[in-house]
Design brief:
By secondary structure, this protein is an all-alpha fold. The chain is about 70% helix and about 0% strand. The protein is built from 2 helices and no strands. About 0% of the residues are buried. The model has no long low-confidence stretch (mean pLDDT about 90).
C-alpha cells in the first residue's frame, strides 16, 4: 500500500509502473489458466 496526495502525480506514475512490472513478472493466474483448460 502506498499513500500519496493529489499533488504527487509523478510519484503515482512511478508506483503504477512498478506495480505493473511486478504483475507482469508474476505472470498469469494459474487458477484461471487451469479453469480455462478444463472448459476447453
Amino acid at each position: 500500500m502506498n499513500n500519496m496526495s493529489s499533488a504527487e502525480g509523478a510519484k503515482f506514475a512511478d508506483f503504477a509502473s512498478e506495480v505493473t512490472e511486478n504483475i507482469q513478472k508474476i505472470g498469469p493466474n494459474p487458477l484461471k489458466t487451469a479453469k480455462a483448460k478444463k472448459i476447453a
